[in-house]
Specification:
Shape of chain B: globular
Order of helices and strands of chain B: EEHEHEHEH
CATH architecture of chain B: 2-Layer Sandwich
Bound molecules: adenosine-5'-triphosphate, magnesium ion
Strand order of the largest sheet of chain A: 1-2-3-5-4
Distance between the termini of chain A: 20 Å
Strand content of chain B: 25-35%
Oligomer: heterodimer
Mean pLDDT of chain B: 92
Strand content of chain A: 25-35%
CATH topology of chain A: Heat Shock Protein 90
Number of strands of chain A: 5
Largest sheet of chain A: 5 strands, antiparallel
Radius of gyration of chain A: 15 Å
Low-confidence stretches of chain A: none
Mean pLDDT of chain A: 97
Structural class of chain B: alpha/beta
CATH superfamily of chain A: Histidine kinase-like ATPase, C-terminal domain
Order of helices and strands of chain A: EHHEEHHEE
Number of domains of chain B: 1
Radius of gyration of chain B: 12 Å
Largest sheet of chain B: 5 strands, mixed
Largest interface: A-B, 26 and 22 residues
Helix content of chain A: 25-40%
Number of strands of chain B: 5
Low-confidence stretches of chain B: none
CATH topology of chain B: Transcription Regulator spoIIAA
Chain lengths: 143, 110
Amino acid sequence: MNKLNSFNLKIPSRSANESFARVAVSAFVSQLDPTLEELSDIKTAVSEAVTNSIVHAYKNEIGSIYISAEIYENRSIKIRIRDTGCGIDDVTKALQPLFTTVGGERSGLGFSVMQSFMDYLKVSSKPGKGTTVIMKKALSLKI
Amino acid sequence: MSVSIVAKGEVVTAFLDGEIDHHTAAEIRTTIDEAVYEHKPTLLVLDFKNVSFMDSSGIGLVMGRYKTISELDGELAIINTSPCIGKVMRLAGMERLAKIGMEELANEQA
Ligand SMILES: Nc1ncnc2c1ncn2[C@@H]1O[C@H](COP(=O)(O)OP(=O)(O)OP(=O)(O)O)[C@@H](O)[C@H]1O
Ligand SMILES: [Mg+2]
C-alpha cells in the first residue's frame, strides 16, 4: 500500500490542545477530500483519544502526547495517539461501553466512540509506562 | 464556547454555541446548573443549533444535566442537533433519557 503523506506532532497534555489536536488531524486528512461525516467521525475519535491521555494518563501532571497520522493511496488513514502516562491495568475491561474509572461526569463511552466511528481500534498499554491507541479508517471512494 | 440562558415560565432553555469537549464542558455545566437551581423549571431544553462539535465529554454533560433536572422532577429536551451530534447522542442512547428533536414542543412551552 502506497503511503502518500504523514505527520508527527508532540503536544503537552493541556486541555486547550484537545481542539488543536482534532483540528490538526482533520486538516491533514482533508488532503483525501473526505465527506463531512467522515471528517466529523475522525475528529471525534481523535478528541476521545487525546482527552483520555489528558484526563487519565496524565491525571495530576502535564506530559507529552504524540500524535501521528498517515494517509495512503487507497484512501485509508492510520492515526496513532501515544502517551507515557499511567497506563491501563486491564485494557479489555477499559474498552467495555460505560466502563470508567473516574466519577463525576465521564460517561465511559470514549472507546466506544472510537470503535464505532473508526474501522479499526487497537489499544496497547503497560501500567506505569503509557498507552498507545491506533485507529484506522477507509474513506469512501470518489467517483 | 458560550452558553446563553433564557428562562420563561416553567422552561429554561440553554443555547449552546461552539464546541463541546472536556476543555469546555465544565463552564457549560456551571452556567446551566446555576440557571436550573435558580428557576427550578419543569423542562430544561438544551439547544444544539450552534454546536459544531461534541464528543463523549458532551455526553457526560448531557447525562449530568439529566440528573440535575430529574432531581427537581423536571424533564430534559434536546433540540436542533446536527447529523454529527445526533450520531454521538444515539451511540450513547440519549433518547432514553431525553426528548430529542421535539423542537415544536419546546417552542410551544417556551
Ligand atoms: N490514555 C489512557 N491512560 C490511562 N488510562 C486510560 C487511558 N485511556 C483510557 N483509560 C482508562 O479507560 C477507561 C475508559 O475510557 P473511555 O474513554 O472509554 O471512558 P472515560 O474516559 O472514562 O469516559 P468518557 O470518555 O466517556 O468521558 C478510563 O476511565 C480510564 O480508566
Ligand atoms: Mg474518555
